[in-house]
Specification:
Blueprint lengths: L15 E3 L8 E3 L5 E2 L6 H18 L8
Antiparallel strand pairs: 1-2, 2-3
The protein binds zinc ion.
Length: about 70
């Protein structure tokens, strides 16, 4: 059985949801605020995105932190 998981194309987070059930083609990421119709369904790609995203925000030093 294949489980379909969706990831944010901007930050690689799994924490994305439909904006509302009437607009089910639009997704929103609760981690980075991304909103749009494009989602990533490949975990390996999502991992790469996540890696670059975390590096990016680290370099920007904007104080964003999600663990600890
Ligand atoms: Zn995101």
């Amino acid at each position: 059985m294949k489980i379909s998981v969706k990831f944010c194309p901007n930050c690689g987070s799994m924490n994305i949801k439909w904006v509302n059930p009437q607009m089910w083609s639009i997704w929103r990421c609760w981690d980075c605020g991304y909103q749009g119709a494009v989602v990533v369904e490949d975990k390996e790609i999502a991992d790469e995105i996540r890696k670059y995203y975390l590096k990016r925000i680290e370099n920007e030093g904007n104080g964003f932190s999600e663990d600890k």
